[in-house]
Design a protein that fits this description.
mainly alpha, 3 helices, 0% strand, elongated
């Protein structure tokens, strides 16, 4: 009985472990690695997105001159 419990625990642990194989130039692997390393709320990513949207809106509404 105890032997069966150990086997079940070993199988359960092996299924819960995340083993990823990252390839150097794979874009999907880079995204998965970034998501694994990310902790908490992505404030920096949202700030970057907000700046891009704000800059795009300024050009549309004429708040920035188009002359170079």
């Amino acid at each position: 009985m105890a032997e069966e419990d150990r086997e079940c625990n070993n199988i359960r642990e092996s299924l819960l472990k995340k083993e990823y194989y990252y390839y150097p130039n794979c874009p999907g692997c880079k995204v998965e690695r970034y998501k694994d390393l990310q902790q908490g709320f992505p404030v920096l990513d949202l700030l970057r997105l907000w700046i891009i949207v704000l800059a795009t809106d300024c050009k549309i509404f004429g708040l920035v001159s188009y002359s170079i």
